[in-house]
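Hmm, how's this folded?
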Amino acid sequence: MLIVDEEPPVTWLLPVRNGMPHLPQALASVEAQAWSNQCILVRDNGSTDGSSAELRRWIPSRIRGAILTGGPLNLGESCAQLVEEARTEYCARIDADDVARRDRLQRQVEFLERHPEVVAVGSRVRAIDEHGRAHSGHGWNLNYYEKDGDIVHDLLVRAAQRHPTLLMRRSAVLAAGNYGPYGRSEDYELQLRLAQVGRLANLPEPLLDYRFHPGSFSQAMPDRDRYAYEVRAVLFAKAGAVLYGVDEAVLLRLKRREHPFALPALLTIARHLERRERIGLMQRVLSRSFLEAVRHLLADRDVVSRAVLGLLRRLRA
């Protein structure tokens, strides 16, 4: 447990498993933050590459904080332990190979202070490769949404907030049940539950350099992995039933793109989301974020729903 003289506004949550050689750059970006009231909690998950010694060179002499160790945990379990041990309301995620922009905490804390209804705020990322050079980023900034209504539509398809960019309210994470014990899609599943506790938001600017490389701890592409995609679909159906107002079985068929006639279920979802934010049913179904999400949920054989989607896209144009 981290004990401090007074509770600082922000605790960084950093799970590490063999974070070298990029770990020092991540820690340096934390140390350099313009927002000085910060500490860090690290879960060293059995590193064997010198990460443990590197962490001790920084914590607590240069960055106030603590290093947690113990038996092997997956990413979701590691993050859950870090949330439990944190003693500040604001908790910021970062990974061992990421680089936070100097004003990241300042921008995000100020946003949450102005918007008490928002429980988690993310940002765009600047994708970099293992050498720090610009990277395509696999389209991470495509179909990027800043407002809660669009984010909830996007959650029908994927994690709509980039996990290592998040600044979260600890009380909301705990109210949502904390991170689940999952090694993959733990961020997606948590965001679906956080959306049931409060509003979600993204800032327009990139506040993090996100590193894409073969050894990246959290870089999983579940859409390219059949087993991982199935796990993701099951987690989505279970966590999303309350948020979207349809039962798990229907959501699972939508996510698997197996529903023979998805249109009624999608209209039920749209009507249910009107309870969250009243913008009008037609405006919702014609929104770019809703139409884009629907496109990823329709089975190839669902010709009627696909025809309706095409009509709606033409109406929007």
